[in-house]
Amino acid sequence: MYALAVEGTAVTDSAIVLADSYLQNETSCVDAAESLVLYESLKACGSGFSCGLAGGALLPLTVTADVCSSLFIQMRLCAAVAIIGGHDTADPRVRLLCWGALAGDACSDAISGIITRLLTRALSLPQAETALLTVVRDALLLKSSHVLLRESLLLPLLGGVINGGAAWLVTRLMGQFAIRLFIPPVTPPCTA
Predict the structure, then answer these.
(1) Do 74 and 102 form a contact (C-beta atoms < 8 A)?
(2) How many domains does one find in the chain?
(3) Can you tell which superkingdom this protein's organism belongs to (predicted)?
(4) 147: in domain
């Protein structure tokens, strides 16, 4: 996958072309990398949204497609950030760091844990029980009126939003990590 991300495919440009297009539009390496991370995160969000929109019927296919496309977008992003930082993608250390940056999406597990703890803490509040009962009551009323939620457009749309949001967040975090790995911070000049 690293070679495909660096060299490009029939439908995608190489990481070098991608990096050059952002370097031409921005004034500094950091600005170019930030812009690249922003737009590639939006691409991952769109891909995740479209894969999540398909719903449960195509779940085995869409999960595989979503994982593959997200990993490819992230690897290409990481390689392009390395190029913007002046690194050679043929260097085995750069390849290893790109794979390491992809493994950095383990931070999504940490985010999931934080959200779980916050929800647990919120549900211990007295108002949470009333709110939860209201939601359950509304769901039961909806089912009793023979309008099944899973057949409506709401559930696939919600799946697309959640999947797209997760893809955006993971790609954005991985991109920020790649910037820290490959682009040295600007040191201010010494003043006396």
Answers:
(1) yes
(2) 1
(3) Bacteria
(4) no
